[in-house]
Write a structure and sequence with these properties.
232 residues; Beta-Lactamase; 3 domains; five-stranded antiparallel beta sheet
């Protein structure tokens, strides 16, 4: 005889069994998600560590106010972290670039695009340094920047070497031009001397004194040969 209570109990057991299995599967999914999240956080931490060791990093808010700097930024700028936070990058402005340079930079990043370029900055002690700069805007859900991450690398030595090579090249070009001018003058003087010699030889022939060295009187003197010819 069919017992409804037994059937209901069996159905309840089956339902609970399915619930337990579903719950176990959900727990496994959450555990996997947590592991993936922890791995992602570790990867981000490793990337941050690598950037801190190799690059000069700064983060600003949407208005350009500095909210984070790493140790390398403090080291190259010679400002403490306390002095930098809450400031803008005008604190290291070397006044080397025209205003249009920074206007173009700001228009690029505020539009959500990455800006890449070389910037000359001024440290706290008044010395200058160059940085190869990449500024990446972080966008909110509306596609508007809410902060900017600037990653820089010191290229001061490279710029100095480049300037020195340019100066040497300019000096070499100047010396080449000077030497070329000297050679051109020497060539001109030689041509003038040759022309003068040719004209002198023509004058001698025209006046009848162009007697060869082997004259009949055997003296070997063209002047004596000419005198001898005139007395005949």
């Amino acid at each position: 005889m069919h017992n409804p209570a037994v059937s209901l109990a069996a159905e309840s057991c089956d339902f609970l069994r399915y619930e337990v299995l579903a719950l176990r599967e959900r727990v496994e999914q959450l555990e996997h998600t947590e592991e993936s999240l922890q791995q992602s956080l570790k990867d981000l931490a490793d990337i941050k560590f690598a950037l801190d060791q190799s690059s000069i990093v700064a983060i600003t808010d949407r208005k350009g106010v500095i909210t984070f700097v790493n140790d390398r930024f403090c080291e190259i700028s010679q400002y403490s972290r306390t002095e930098l936070l809450g400031q803008t990058h005008r604190i290291v402005n070397a006044k080397h670039h025209p205003q249009t340079f920074f206007i173009e930079m700001w228009e690029t990043i505020s539009s959500g695009n990455v800006w890449i370029g070389e910037v000359k900055n001024r440290a706290k002690d008044g010395t200058y340094y160059w940085v190869d700069t990449t500024i990446v805007p972080f966008l909110d859900r509306c596609g508007k920047p809410y902060q900017y991450v600037a990653i820089r690398n010191d290229i001061t030595a490279f710029k100095q070497t480049k300037d020195e090579l340019q100066q040497l090249n300019e000096q070499l070009e100047a010396r080449v031009e000077e030497r070329t001018a000297d050679l051109a003058k020497a060539l001109h003087d030689l041509q003038q001397a040759q022309l003068h010699l040719v004209q002198s030889e023509k004058m001698v022939i025209v006046h009848g004194v162009g007697v060869s060295v082997g004259s009949k009187d055997g003296t070997g003197s063209p002047w004596r040969a000419a005198r001898h010819a005139s007395t005949k």
